[in-house]
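Quick question, first post here. What does this chain look like in 3D?
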Amino acid sequence: MARKTYPRTPDGRYFVAKGLLWRCTNPALPEPERKALVKALMRGRLGVRNASTEEETRAARAEVDAAKRALGERGPVWWDDGMEPVDRKKPKNTPYAAWWDALPDEERAAGE
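> Answer (accepted):
Ran it through. Tokens below.
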């Protein structure tokens, strides 16, 4: 099955899915570390899906959160130029508005 491609901001910080900006993984992570963290993330998501008690659900969600933070997708930003995060905002309401408006219709549609 082909993986869906989402529009990515020119600076590589975000991709757009379901009409919102989502933070990308820190590109400075070494590949073996990134792969291990993605594996932990998938294990946590599977744990959330298969949890049968509230305690199991909480533990699995904590695993997901820890992996996403380590990947740079949550928590402190991985860039150092002072730009504030704009996670989970519509591109038109962020500094990326001009980029979003300039995208070809088919690219924009992939992120909606």
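Residues 29-72 form one domain.
Residues 55 and 73 are 24 Å apart (CA to CA).
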